[in-house]
Backbone:
């Protein structure tokens, strides 16, 4: 049975009158109650094992009741089950699968600047040397690409030595995994000026501020989670916030899974750079890797 057809048929069996919102409350309580019944049946199965002969039939019945109340709530908000299912599948794919471009074997990394002149494109492979020196009683980080310093000296801008001065590592991780970083484009003078609206929107000050905001936000999150050491999955709300911040930009084509990998790869390299007070990074856009030497 198709979901929209089920929704129409289920609605015909709703006997509650729409009186002061009571019908919605009953539907919500019914949804919670039937979920409890489902758990109760599973409890019996754990207790009785195979002697609970009707377990599968009871589970099917409880799931059907949950589906009815779920459908009833959706109908009261004028939302179709088809729309709910479609949106949920898209959400799950974005969270757990890499971008479609990568799925079908295209060089996804190149798609953001493939059509631009060489002097406006990221190098497909680059080495970044990171140093850490003390000047004027402050730890200062410098990053060099092909022997030329990229950007200014950076400090932690903090009361404590938390290693944020090395946060350019995160931007290079975004380059490696996502093929995106208006910050690095600016530092390496790779802004796509040949197309003015791309230069303004994708490579301009607002996009740079968004990326820096993401870097600071994720760092704050990571500082409460052992800087993501031995962590393989990130909080969904964090990833959703990043997607909201980047909507309307080219990087919005990247999935939750892409962002998760970029962040985890970045922090893996950052922890090594911080521990050794510098080092060399290898960015390989074609392989979508960031490695520490």
Residues:
């Amino acid at each position: 049975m198709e979901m929209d057809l089920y929704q129409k048929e289920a609605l015909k069996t709703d006997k509650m009158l729409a009186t002061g919102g009571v019908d919605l409350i009953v539907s919500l309580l019914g949804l919670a109650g039937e979920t409890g019944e489902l758990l109760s049946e599973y409890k019996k199965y754990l207790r009785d094992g195979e002697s609970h002969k009707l377990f599968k039939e009871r589970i099917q019945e409880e799931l059907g009741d949950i589906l009815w109340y779920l459908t009833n709530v959706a109908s009261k908000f004028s939302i179709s089950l088809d729309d709910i299912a479609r949106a949920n599948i898209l959400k799950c794919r974005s969270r757990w699968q890499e971008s479609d471009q990568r799925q079908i074997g295209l060089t996804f990394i190149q798609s953001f600047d493939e059509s631009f002149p060489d002097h406006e494109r990221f190098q497909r492979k680059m080495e970044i040397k990171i140093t850490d020196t003390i000047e004027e009683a402050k730890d200062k980080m410098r990053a060099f690409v092909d022997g030329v310093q990229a950007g200014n000296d950076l400090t932690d801008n903090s009361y404590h030595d938390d290693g944020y001065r090395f946060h350019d590592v995160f931007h290079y991780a975004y380059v490696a995994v996502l093929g995106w970083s208006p910050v690095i484009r600016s530092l390496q003078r790779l802004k796509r000026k040949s197309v003015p609206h791309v230069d303004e929107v994708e490579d301009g000050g607002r996009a740079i501020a968004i990326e820096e905001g993401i870097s600071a936000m994720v760092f704050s999150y990571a500082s409460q989670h052992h800087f993501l050491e031995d962590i393989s999955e990130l909080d969904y709300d964090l990833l959703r916030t990043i997607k909201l911040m980047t909507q309307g930009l080219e990087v919005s084509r990247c999935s939750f899974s892409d962002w998760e990998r970029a962040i985890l790869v970045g922090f893996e390299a950052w922890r090594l750079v911080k521990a050794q007070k510098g080092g060399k990074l290898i960015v390989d856009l074609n392989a979508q890797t960031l490695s520490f030497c």
